[in-house]
Input
Amino acid sequence: MNLKSDTGRGKRSGPLRDKAGDTSMLRGTCAGCGMSVKSSGRRSTDGDLDPPARLAAKLRILRNRTGKSLRELERLTHTSDSSLSRYLNGSTLPPWTVVAALCRVAGTDPDQLRTLWSAARARPAASTGAGHDLARQPACVPLSAFVHELHDDDTPFDPDGHAIGAVGAALSSSYDRLSGPAARLFRLLGGVHPGPDVTARTATALASAPALEVRTALQELIQSNLLVEHEPGRYRIHSQLRTFARDRFARQDQHLDRRLAFDRLFEHTLQLAHAAARALDRARVPVRSPGMPVDTEPIGDASTAMAWVTREHDALLAVVNLAADRGDHRTPLLAWALTPYLRPRGRFDEWRDIQRRALDVALQGNDLPGQALANLELGQAFLHLGDATAARVHFEWVVSWAGANPDLTGAARAGLAEVSRPQGWTRPGTHL
Output
């Protein structure tokens, strides 16, 4: 589909002129940016518009060509009709997920608008001078931009998350004006998820709420400058705001709600990570925790799984460390799931360190199956690091435990055989 503007067909849309025919200087508002701008008076074309206004025009074209009402598009794009209205009239910059969804409904390739959307998101907004309300800055201004701009005010929050100074007051005011679902999601993203960023799927699992409600809340947070969509479909909270959100989470959410939120995060990550681990290495024993079912749509074949783990590695590692910090019993299982990614890349030190943390948690919780799993993984990690003595200690622990899974015991015996080879160590052929 050609996305050239359909506006102005059969209509005159040239500049306004006074009675003498001179072009007047018109003052208007930049759609999506709230900037006061002047028109030169010459005939406006699509190329003359700034990126946010051009994007809004393209989206209106797409909407018209779908022939669907806003209510119908709400269902098809998982975006409220009120939000769609703001995106179409250019008053708010839409998240990339909404742009892509609208393109799909219209039957066109979303990549045609990716460059324009990126330009609209990056377009700087003019400051309105001293005393401007940060909470009302346009959504197309990155959060990091105005945090850096007001860095002279020092951090807007103290170490406990309390607002200090004018900047802290403005950001606190932004939070206070959020709807209930958006405020709750903000607390969950900053108070539970360790970062560095989240997807809409993870946010939905964390909130345990309908996808449409979560997407609407994400958009509200972006519009309030409390969240940044730094890549299409990936959301990040600034480190200073994370401190603020963590404080609100501790103060406003009940203890049971907080515990359940961490449970949802660990279970969601565990299910997805195990699906990826099994796709990457079908020979591994299917060790998993019987938890709540989750949608594992992103995990398909080995190549898809590898792409997913590669993209999510930092977040996965952060979740494993968070689980270890909290002494969660799923830590050995989460650590196990990262092996098919770390081992082929020669990241043996990281593999060893993660398994050490897993073993510590299993020891503290008197979790013998978890200890067996972590000991086996540590034995294999030390083999790859060339430390046969340390590897032997961990393999022998697994073999000596009478209650060990036969598959674990078999893998440990194979590891001991590798350690005992007179010609020295070779890469084990056993996968677990």
